[in-house]
Design a protein that fits this description.
The protein is mainly alpha-helical. The chain has two helices and no strands. 79% of the residues lie in helices and 0% in strands. The chain folds into two domains: 43 residues; 37 residues.
């Protein structure tokens, strides 16, 4: 839905229009990806959903532990100075 060259306000400058064009393209790509991902999620069976929840829970637990150990390393590193 880019504005045509004739309709573009010149006072806004080419940088503005170039940025707007890139943003519109990105928005369209993300919107398309969203539709595809949503359709794929609708195909997930109840068993797959349960497995996904378990995997996600475990992932969150691991990330929490990783954040804790990273913070401990950082505390240790700054204490040693």
């Amino acid at each position: 839905m880019s504005a045509t060259e004739e309709l573009r306000a010149e006072w806004l400058g080419t940088q503005f229009w170039d940025r707007l064009d890139r943003l519109e393209e990105l928005h369209q790509r993300v919107h398309t990806e969203h539709r595809i991902v949503r359709r794929n999620l609708q195909r997930v069976t109840p068993q797959e959903a349960d497995e996904l929840r378990i995997a996600w829970r475990r992932y969150c637990e691991v990330i929490t532990e990783l954040e804790k150990t990273t913070a401990e390393f950082e505390t240790f590193r700054t204490f040693e100075r």
